[in-house]
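User: For a benchmark we're assembling, each entry needs the component sequences followed by a predicted structure for the full assembly. Here are entry 17's components. Please fill in the structure.
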Amino acid sequence: MLEEDTRKLSMADGESSREATARTLRNAFGNVFSFFILLLIGILAFSIRLFSVIKYESVIHEFDPYFNYRVTQFLTKNGIYDFWNWFDDRTWYPLGRVIGGTVYPGLTLTAGTLWWLLNSLNIPLSVETVCVFTAPIFSAFASWATYLLTKEVKGTGAGLTAAVLLAMVPSYISRSVAGSYDNEAVAIFALIFTFYLYIKTLNTGSLFYATLNALAYFYMVCSWGGYTFIINLIPMHVLLCIVTGRYSSRLYIAYAPLVVLGTLLAALVPVVGFNAVMTSEHFASFLVFIIIHVVALVYHVKGNLSPRMFKVAVTLVVSVGLVVCCAMIAVLIALVASSPTKGWSGRSLSLLDPTYASKYIPIIASVSEHQPPTWPSYFMDINVLAFLVPAGIIACFLPLSDASSFVVLYIVTAVYFSGVMVRLMLVFAPAACIMSGIALSEAFNVLTRSIKFQLPGSSGISQSGDTSMNTEGEQNDIAKTEKMDETAKERPSKKNKRKEKEPVVKASIRSRIERRLLVLPLEASVIAIILLVLLGAFYVVHCVWAAAEAYSAPSIVLTTYSREGGLHVFDDFREAYAWLSHNTEVDDKVASWWDYGYQTTAMANRTVIVDNNTWNNTHIATVGTAMSSPEKAAWEIFNSLDVKYVLVVFGGLVGYPSDDINKFLWMVRIGGGVFPHIKEPDYLRDGQYRIDSQATPTMLNCLMYKLSYYRFVETDGKAFDRVRQTEIGKKYFKLTHFEEVFTTHHWMVRIYKLKPPKNRIRGKTKKSKSKASSTSSPKRSGTGKRNPWH
Amino acid sequence: MAIFPTVFLPLLLLTSVLHCATADSDDLVTELLSLQSQSKSGIIHLDDRLISRFLTSAKPPRPYSLLIFFDAEQFHSKPELHLQDLYTQYSLVSSSFIANNDVSAASSLFFCAIEFKESQKSFSLFGVNSLPHIRLVGPNVKNLQDSEVMDQGDFSRMAESMSEFVESRTKLNVGPIHRPPTVSKNQIAFLVVIVLIWVRFFIKNVATKDTILHDWRVWLLGAVFVYFFSVSGGMFNIIRKMPLFLVDRNDPSKLVFFHQGSGMQLGGEGFAVGFLYTTVGLLLGVVTHVLVRVNNRSAQQVVMGVALVVSFWAVKKVVSLDNWKTGYGVHAFWPTSWR
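Assistant: Structure for entry 17:
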């Protein structure tokens, strides 16, 4: 794709008309060429994400995507208004959840629209298929958006390179393989596209693009909570431009409509609503909005007054402006200070002060994707781009334009944030691709030029004059045409030094003209090109490997390779959910740990008690308490919640490590956090979590242990747990309040039914009854207290 | 010689304490109060003799509880124990408790500290064999080993959780924790004045485009530095408080700079690799943007040769380090017929 740059050689001295036709031809050829390259890049971005479909099947991955899938199903079935007002009673029983007002609707609406469009074109795809392929489609869009953005900054060559890098950057692949139907899949496209439109507006000063920019921002707000990154980055850039003396009317047009329209539109999204004006994340944009108006006023007054009058006016305006500013800042500070977290959400605060989360919010700090990354994470997620980015930063400074200063700011903030939270690597990856694209393109530009004009066959100097045409970084069309004319005119005589009257245009022209002689040694250039190509090849190998091996497992279907090389598939989850949907009543309630809530509602269509949207800690703690209690107490808790079935995930037979026994301590902790009679030390022997013969009696009698290991000894006679690598502590026991109704093929999911309550008045002998009542009544009151639902 | 009274007062007290073995409980409280008033944060420094005086020889029920912080100076150098951090938090709770309560309430709970080197006997008396360790000796405790231990969880959240522990066990009110402001009021006033003056000049300079902010080299350096710092996992080092290197356990004379396993890194390791990341990029940038402008042919050749060799070596090094550290077997996918 770099031929682009060298391709556009200006013509020899012939008639101007012939020159013009030749130039148009070249341009047309170049445009067609880039179009096809972009098409191929789109196909590449789409197809590299299909490994999960090829290796497994067309299935939705993990947990959250199942919820999104279910919401999309609802949308396509019931229409947008019902979706907006949807109160979901099949989850968080008996509380329910308001879905319409608590989700970012962008992804759902996108996939729903896609499905509707395909169906109205008589392409009968199922909703699931559309959902599975939404992420790869939007990855292609994202790489095209990257092309557009980088083209605005440094020209077509850099744009194409950046696009191809983004098409296969592992960090982005990890969130957008086919089946990974989550918000980030569309949000990254929206992020890049919003940035592109901002830069486009900044370069053209067109209100049309400014409006589009606000709309793109609206789409981003609909899609992902990460939109706060945009609404803070753009004001930062505007402020930077003002402070470094780069204010222009284009800047005003790029910024002011975005804030006004963007904020109004953002407030339309139910999940954001008045947060768009009430929380501190948005205050920076309003502050800069005020500042840019003050600055605009100053420039306006300056243009209308004589220098002396201006000085008088300046003192007036500056003092008034300062007073207004101070008043506004005081109001803002008062507003911010009145809220306990200073108006910032915990996650944002932990970005500003990286040690914040680890000190005060253990829940945020404990999530694995909120950990700070180490250096190998960078190598895994952006690979060799980590080497190229600094060169891109240098290129952006030579020369520094509004657009290139924006991408520099973008990469600096994004790399800092990614350093705090590994999850934000996703925001950093596009910036890294843009920078590396610029770096690679510039390097190839210089190196290929050096080879071309020093090849033994060609007479170096005389031809080297022809390289004056480059397609990079045109600020506007006028400057470009001027450049062309002038370079064509003055090419034979080197009188470029005389023409320095118009410094703005001239500066860039001069650097361009000087470059015709700027070459590197031939041999070194050849080696450098070979090394760069090798580096690129290594990147491709790494990305394909990452897409194929590291990021494609759907985690709902598991595979292992046996020693003979055969493939073994574990499809127990879907087996269990299918059993539930076929063998239970529609309104039965199923209790499980929250991880499986989304999947149960989406695949089995049964009501669950808790799910992955962990909005109610008490409810989760209730389930945790039940799982940690002895059978009878657990039965009472579950019965009070109308639960019919209990589902546990057990990996002891096949060695599946993320099963419920391994998550059990979290259940104890969360349960104990709300119901203090559950104490973690009761489940630990000398601080160690164990389930073998050394385990504590509380552990061996709790519901989770019993449901996981019931009849386990019948499998191999020894009851050897292959995850914990030990024989279990209690092998033979009976269940009194639960009965096993279904266990999947590999025992990974086990479903139990609550036994019906015993008949109280039974024809038992009188004395045993009186005895029982005298002994059991205090006990019952004791257990009654324990049960949080009585 | 104004120092004398403050130095000798405890000694005098001690001797007096030892002499009157049958001092009644009111005397003990007054003594504790006077000991308390000698330290700035109100923490009483105990030793074996004082322990026996106030705890073992004083018959329960005593009119006071003692909260004891077990300290050992020799472990202050071990960062994973956080002894000094905990001690500062502990003294914050102590001073806040004294500030928030009047004398009658404040005289029923005393914050004490005990040092391992001086009072090994007391450590064994309490059965303390691991640090950090904080114990509350209530008024009715006979055997010191029965006193209540503050859990790991109770001092994990710093002063606030300690005060919660105290409040729940003693039914006393600690009240809000008074943390000393990081900058004092005078400093704030001074800073405000400085900022105000600076803002005036700054706006003027910005208007005339004559600040350090208008020099693009500063921005370039800043950007590259932030990049270097982030990709080297600097944030990881700060948040996890990673040391730059470790001492090899088997061979104390050897230093360990690299840790195997991708979940963790040492400080020095991160910066070394971050340096390699950044160097290659900078060399590429310099070659494409600066070196081309150099007129001297041989200089160009030499610099390019060096840059190529260094870059090649750096990339190779990072790749091999990554393979070693993570253990991933990155491989290409060739058509099966090629095998």
